[in-house]
Amino acid sequence: MLPPSFSDPQDLVSLVDDIKSWAIEFGFAEARIVEPDLEQYRDGFNNWLAQDYHAGMDYLANHGDIRFQPNKLHPGTRRVISLRMHYLPQSVATVERLKTKKQAYIARYALGRDYHKLIRKRLTQLAKKIEERVGEHGYRAFVDSAPILERQVAEQAGMGWIGKNTLLLTPKAGSWFLLGEIFTNLPLPVDPPTKTRHCGSCDACLTQCPTDAFVEPWVLDAGKCISYLTIEHKGAIPVDLRAKMGNRIFGCDDCQLVCPWTKFAKHTTEQDFQPRHNLDAEDLVSLFLWDETTFLKNTEGSPIRRTGYENWRRNIAVALGNAPTEAAIIAALESAADSNSELVNEHVRWALEQHDIRLKGA
After folding, report:
1. 11, 144, 272, 283: which is the annotated catalytic residue?
2. pTM, whole model, 2 decimals?
């Protein structure tokens, strides 16, 4: 229950204005309020699952009711405060790095500290600030950590629209941002939803995906997506997709890079999102030669830790197979041709075969 001072609806309007100002102070680019209505997405989501487009991410098939009914995820929820935070440092190259085949390309959200920790901390700070104003209230903060349709929530909050590449787009910043939510029992005034998806006839993200992972607009086959293959997927990467992966060793930004709305991207000044260990420009050979101790040290507090050392080496072996045929690259692969991991060995053999084919064709 709100304190008596908030009995006037105008007081709630004033509170929302303050929440949006505080969000900016805590480093968010925008905050918007929504009373989510997610049941309308149930059939589409279940059809996507039925086609096995979630690949090996079995957890996406769990908690169906909770995903579409926020009140079951956090009892008492009346509104969701949807927030976004920019993550792309101005100094970091994107397209240029993809063209430099001897250097690794890592999805730009993963170059620095794990965003979950940073954004969760800021969300909690914002929730505490609200608590200072209204007293104790029921809330819970989430950062990609629960069964939430966060892009749909953000679209309903009027933050932007879901593009054909399934990412949230906004004319204010393209898609180079991360989302977070605060579920609250406060009856806050809501923002108007986005009514139009401004992709028009553009299909750049669909036609220029390296692995043709889009079945149709707004439908992604995760089993073909480089982000899934290099992060979530366990086991061998399908042979027919390896050459298409280029130098992408952790995640993929291509469907953002080709989107016309990218020209409106805003850069971050957050220190935690700045690149660590030269990961925005490191060469593939150097990364491939990391031993497990070095990998664990250099990925401490990083989202890259999620993929694990074995899959890290698997991914880089593929990228080395796609790299120019040079003595240093072949030597690095040969040094690992008999590693302790058969998974790595398989991809190293494939990579060496690619260089052998090129040498024979020269």
Report:
1. 144
2. 0.95
